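Lab notebook, bench 4. We co-purified these components, and the gel suggests they stay together. Before we commit to crystallization screens, I want a quick structural picture of the whole thing.
Request: model the full complex, all chains together.
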Amino acid sequence: MCEGLRARGFRLTPQRLAIVHLFSRDGSHPTAHDLFARLRPAFPTMSFATVYNTLDALAQAGLSSSLRLGALSGLAAATRFDPNTEPHHHAVCDRCGVVVDLPVDSLAAPQVDARKVRTQSQGFRVRTVETIYRGTCAGCRSRPSLPPLPNVTPEA
Amino acid sequence: MCEGLRARGFRLTPQRLAIVHLFSRDGSHPTAHDLFARLRPAFPTMSFATVYNTLDALAQAGLSSSLRLGALSGLAAATRFDPNTEPHHHAVCDRCGVVVDLPVDSLAAPQVDARKVRTQSQGFRVRTVETIYRGTCAGCRSRPSLPPLPNVTPEA
DNA sequence: ATGAGTGCAAATGCTTTGCATCCTG
DNA sequence: CAGGATGCAAAGCATTTGCACTCAT
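Here is the predicted assembly.
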């Protein structure tokens, strides 16, 4: 992932290396705050600007994408970031907020070649397709009642 | 739509009637600010709280849904609201931000019964499916270069 | 009349920005 | 050693909330 940044002309600072190291192995779709919180111990002077800046650099290099899933209750909806560059869907748990990646063939309705489809009556040229499945994850289903629901990002 | 609100026990105030009247005929997926701006001339004292409150009431009555599509550039991503309660997809133009509804059968990949599918390895029980096609709309494709791109909500 | 709804303003939370300083390439 | 990157704090926005007042039912 670092090579990708370097190839694009981005400088590899210690902060970026740390962010990339953490983010690239993180399948939890962390928010900028999540990453920031985990980096602060090692980089007490780290700022949000740097986290966002690096995430943006990764996006420019095609090494990450962002997800806006909306809030669960009245909380503000933070952008979540995803290092998975393979085509995939997302499943979001309504209760605990966990987000899991789904390979494109794991459901009955694959998104296949819709990318090139030009939607008939509207003249749209489609470039990307994004499918979100909302429901309840296994953990929350087996749990008796709905727990207090902390601030997203479970099983961190 | 008003009946739906009344049936749910919501009071029909002049403000709500105006919001519902405007919103129910609006296929542009307006933001709260869009509606507010169009209502202010007739209701100089209208507040955002009332707009959000009414949109929330409509959502509770199952008469509208919300869309979080993310910002086009660095702007904050406003929630867009949709009075269309039929199952449908959304196509979003990367350039001008326009959002159009797509009937479920207008593309090769229908979302059909995925609602009841339990995604294999993850144990998720899926309740809703949401598909977003991103690309370029007919108008922007025919336009020579990329125009300055004002603050979303084109052809209002 | 009674409590849901309204309006206002302040608060909240995420994200961006300006600018002086730092440090990678 | 030049310009991209960082850190800090303040600014921006969308959205929510508290509270006193109003009005639909």
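Residues 9-11, 13, 15-16, 45-50, 53-54, 71, 74, 76 of chain A lie near DNA strand D (CB under 10 Å from a C1'). Worth comparing against the SEC data before the next meeting. Chain A has five helices and six strands.
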